Each structure stands twice: as C-alpha cells, then as structure tokens.
Queue: 2 jobs
Job 1
Amino acid sequence: MDKDEFVHFPIEDSIDLHTFRPGEVKDLLQDYIEEARKQGFEEVRIIHGRGTGVLRKTVHALLQRHPLVISFREADPGGGGWGATIAVLKKTDSHPG
C-alpha cells in the first residue's frame, strides 16, 4: 500500500491502537477524535494497552492539547483499566453554521 493511501474504518465509540504503527498514532488519533465528534460521540475509549506506558503517555499528551477534548481518565476495570483511556469530547453544535 502506498503511504499516501487512505484506510477507511468505521468510527465507533472506541479505537484499539494495537493495530497501528506507533508513528501513525498521533495523526490517527487526532483524526479519530474529530470524526467521533462529528458522529455525535460525547465519550470515546482509546485502547493503548498496558505495556511500558509509552503509548499511554503519548495518548495522554495528545488529549491534553486537543481542542475537542474536555477531559480524560483511566477506563474502569471492565473497560480496560489503565490499558485504556476514556476521553470526554465537547458536544457537537446542534444548529448549523
């Protein structure tokens, strides 16, 4: 696949970053948050795994700076615990324009 080709995947209320290369995560996560908000999601779960914590730190740093993210927290134990992060997104505008 050409590096400039787009891969389309459905926007759901969670994304598993295990299937992506570390170098793709920053752009991917920014695009995912924007599309999730457009779809009307107010909260999304980002699965980054436990591992060494490097990916979690990358995700949290991006969420801290993203203008559409109100807050974020560790997922509850049933949702992945510290292997996943819940991000609360700004609500979509209910009126055009």
Note: Residues 14-89 form a domain with the Ribosomal Protein S8; Chain: A, domain 1 fold (CATH 3.30.1370.110).
Job 2
Amino acid sequence: MKGWFRATLLCLLVAAHAHAATVDTRPTSLGEVFDAAQEGEPNYRAVKANLAASQARERQAFGAMLPQISLTASANGNRRAYNTHDATTDTMHDRYHSHSDQLNLTQPLWRPADVASWHEAEDSTAQAQYQLADAQQKLYAKLAVAWFDLMEARDEIDFTTAQRNALQAQWKIARRGAELGTQSPPQAADAEAKYREAAADEASAELDRETKLAALEQLTGPADGLVQPYLRDDARLPDLVGNDVDAWLNLVDTHCPSLRAATQAISAADDEVRKQRAGGHPTLDLVASYGNNDQAVGNFPGQAGYGIRTFTVGLQLNVPLYTGGTQSAKVAEALAARDKALAERDAARRQAILDIRTAFLEWQSGQAKARAALIGMTAAGDAWRAARRGEARGLKTHADVLAARQQWAAARRDMHKGRYQQITAYVKLRTTLGELSSDDVAELDRLFGPSDDASLQVADARSKSP
C-alpha cells in the first residue's frame, strides 16, 4: 500500500512539474502584454486618475447650484461680574448657561458664474475621457514598437549565431589548410578575424536584446519569464492599409482621440471665459433661517432669562461694484488660455496627420522589404539545397552548407523585419485614429506561433530534398 501511495505521489509530482514547465514556456501574446501595461504603466494610471478627478470636479460644480444647508449650534457656560453706580453696592456675580442653534438654507437663483463652471466641468470631463482613450491607444503603439523591436533583436541573435557558426567552420577549414599547406597563413588569419568579428556581433546582439527588453519593461513592469512567439513563415499579411492615404486622413477630425480632446479643451476654455465675465454680474439667492437662542438670565442685572425663536426667509442680492481690476484680469487670463487651447488643437491635428502619413509610408516600406526578402529567401533556400546536395556528393564542404544556411537566415530575418514594420505601422495607424481594438490584436496574434522549430525543420527538410 505504501509503495502504491509513493508511486501515485511521484506521478502527481511529475505531472505537476510538467504542467508548470508547460505554463512557464507558453508564449506571451501581444494582447496579454497590452493588458499588463494597462495595469502597471505609470503614465496611463495618471491619466485614469485625472479622469476620476475631473468627474469629481463636475459633481462639485453641479452641487454648487443645489441648496446649501448648514446648522450651527453652541453651548456656553458664562460668568459675569457687575456693579451699579451706587458706590455702596458691592460687585455682584452671575453664573449661568446659554445655548443657541440655527439652521440656514441658501438656494442660488441667479448665479451665471456657477452655471458656466458646471458646463466647464462637463467639458473638462469629456476632455479627460478622450485623453484616457488617447493614452490607451498611444500605449498600444509604444508597446507594439517595443514588442517588435525585441523580436527583431531576437532574430538578429539567431542570424548572428548562424553567421558565427558558418565563419567558425570556414576558419577551421582555413586553419587546417594552412597546416597542410593548401592555404596560406594569411588566409587562415583572415578567416579567424571574420569569425572573431561574427562572435562579437553575436555578443552585441545579445546586449541589444537586453536593452530592448528593458525598454519593454518600462511599459509592462518586470518581464520575468517572458517568452515571445515566432512569426510564422507561412503567415501572410493582407493589405490592411490600402493605397489611399487620403482615406485615412479624412478620419482624423472625427476619430482621432487626441484631436477630440483638444476640441473639448477649447469648449472648456470658452466656458471659463463666460465664467470670469459673469464674475462681475449680480447674483440672487433665496435665503432662509430658523434659530433658537436660550439664556438662563437676562442681559441686565436682575433681568429674567429668555428663549427666542426666529424664522426668516427672503431674497439676497449681491452686486459687485469694484474688485480692484481683479475680475478684468481674470477675463484676460481666460481669453489667453482659450488662444492657447486653439493653438494646441491645431498642433494636435498636424501631429495626427504627420503620424498617419508616416505610418502609411512605413507600411508600404515594410511591405516592399518583406516581398523582396521573401524572394531572396526562396533563392537562398535553393542555394542551401544545392549546397546540401553538393556536400552529399563530395563537391561542397560543410562550411559551404553553413554559409548557404546563413544567407537563408539573413533573408528570413529581413522578411520578418519587414513584416514587423508592417504590423507596427498598422498599429500606429489604428491607434492614431483611436480604433485599435482587442479583436485587431487577436487577429495579429494569429500570425505567430509558439516555436520556431517547425519552420527550421521544414527548411532543413527542403534543403535535403534532391
């Protein structure tokens, strides 16, 4: 029984370990990276907090137009000393208690500055909502750049490793040839120099990947255990952008969140101008109060105590006559702030147009690079197969095979780089217009696979075919 229990426990531990290993090596999707960044990126959290603050200010501005009710109460112990004009009378003392309470109500009836403040708070909240949408989309764009930069760094490591292996094999052949006298020592030294340079390139690529990983961690937080997927060689990107950049530019005014936030800022600035101009206008309030004042003795010696109940209701008019120029200065400040908001709106529109044009051209450039690299990859694959056949017949060396594989790896790296550029450009286009959704990210994730082994095995099998 004990042996059966131990065997079962051992199997469970092995299964748990295998499951943990599977979980640890599962590739991280781009959608998961986006979710992690929204939870941990400081700038995005700050914009979310700004929206919460704007919503609170809107509630404050609306509350200023509602009835204001307050209650005041006091309880006092008093000690009073007094004497009369009769010099023969000694100083007399009183000790007594008093208390009072009063309920006050103020209902604004005409306060144009408060109404303008409320509309300004509404526009500021709408601006903060667009700013949050813009921050989210810009975070996606920055993540896409950092994510695919890291992929490019990994591909560069793969290429430099293949290059180092090929040059190392060539160096060994040259060194052996120098020992046998079939090659000169300078040829062997040149082959060694190329191998050493390739090894240095590999080390540099490793350091570059660490740098790109640090850049990604600035957005997502610690990326311990991060495993990136591989772009499938059979993945084909449809034409997601088209050939008409004007079709994208026509969407700027109605879709770009940064531009819409800037437009809301102008509306808030207009409300601020109205508020400051209304600061010199009369205000009218409905006021009411109910009070109770009890005192144990009167206000004069020998006077009996009393209790007073009062209720008042009326209208209160406040007419500002002179503020020392403060209000006119506030109006001038609000007008200047409005001019600033107009300029920032124009700057946001120009930046959005520039971003769209740049991303559109980056897509076309990446598409051309990927197509050219794909042709080069096909040609390099043919050369690789020819080298393998030559090695099998004794006409080529293994170094020739490694060199051919290196050329194929270089073309494959360039193809991936072009596609990364296309995907990044597409993300930038969509985020500039505030339209990148989780469905778009899921579609992009389908272009990637968990491992690069399958592609390499297919390439090796093709290279071995006659």
Note: Strands lie at 68-82, 92-110, 230-231, 283-297, 304-318, 448-449.
